[in-house]
Structures are given as C-alpha cells and as structure tokens.
Amino acid sequence: MSLTFLLLLPLGSLLPRTLSHLTPHAIPLHRALQLTGFLVVLVALAMGVWVCAGLGQIHHTLYLRSRPNTLITLIHRFLGPTTILLGIINGGLGLRKADAGNGARAGYAVVGVVIAVGVGVVVVWARRSRGGREREGKRERERERGWELGRR
C-alpha cells in the first residue's frame, strides 16, 4: 500500500499533465493507474481489517480457553492500541494537510487528548483492580497444586 501512495498514484496524476500532448493514451493510462491504485488501497485496507479482526478473534478464543498470555495475545495487545493511536495521529495530520482551520484542528486535538487520557485512565484502573485478584487467584491455584509460594 505504501508503494501505491508513493509511486502509483503520483505517477498516475502526472500522466495527463506531462504526456497528454505526446500521446492520446495519456488520459486512459491516467485512469487505469488511478483505478488500479484505488483498488490496491481498497484491497489492502480490507486485508488489514480482516487480519486485525482475525487476530482479535484468535486471541479472544485462546484467552478464554487457557487464560495465559500467548504470542497472539501480546501481538493483539500491542497492535490494537498502536493502530488506534496511529489512526488518531493520521486524522490530525490529514486536517493539517487539508488546510483545515485552526478551530477544527484544535477541536480535533482536544478530543484526541481527552480520549487518549480517558483510555489511559481506564487501562491503568483496570490493571490495578484486576492485579490484586489475579495475584490472589495465582496463590489459590498454587495452594491447590500443593505448591508453596515460589517453591515446588
């Protein structure tokens, strides 16, 4: 997808401006390159959504079965928030690139910061409140197995 934005779409946009006086095929080539670029982006987007949804489903299924942190769990926990954060940043950059007014950009920034802080507070709160229960549950499982804390 990066190559589409880096090469295919810019090249397609240049064809009518640079080659239309040399060949009658410049406009059809422009149309074909732009349509191809659009389809590549659309397919890549669909694949990205499918992969994220698939990884999420696999993570949740495995987690409900066994409750350990698997590789899929770690990928899911990293990729999800990272993707959301990059999407928020991309939206702000898009407003800047579109020459949106200062009010729109400031409003977007305020909402983005409020959402980011709110999510951060909820994550910290959930981890702290769950942490005590998880430690107690681990101790209970160790007692059931006949283990003393830290010893077999």
From TrEMBL:
The keyword Protease does not apply. Coiled coil: none annotated. Residues 1-20 form the signal peptide. Keywords: Membrane, Signal, Transmembrane, Transmembrane helix. The chain crosses the membrane at residues 36-58, 78-95, 107-126. Residues 133-152 are annotated as: Disordered. This is Cytochrome b561 domain-containing protein.
